[in-house]
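Q: Could you fold this chain for me?
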Amino acid sequence: MIRSFRYVALLEGITTLALFFIAMPLKYGWGNPVLVPPIGLIHGIAFLLYIATMLFTVPGRGFSRTEWTRTVLAAFVPFGTFANDPMLKRKQAALESGDGRIPAPSRSQG
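A: Sure. Below is the predicted structure, expressed as structure tokens.
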């Protein structure tokens, strides 16, 4: 289930990049807003899907209050879903290994 949530988070992050680095510069830099409505709509749907998937994925899987907060805030902070992914990956690995322990982050994982 966390794997699916990570895919949704990746989609949300990619749509944020498309909005910030393609649609908005095209609108404000070149006066052509043609991509803002479709990319904005896709991003909006991805955001709602992120929130819905998070509400079904996170409960009961050993997330601390801090990890919950971090995961919620990741949707509201640009590029937050990318920064949150290493923690989600560790949670996924721990749940899939069946040992129930969540490995401590290494320095390279952030």
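A (continued): The radius of gyration is 16 Å.
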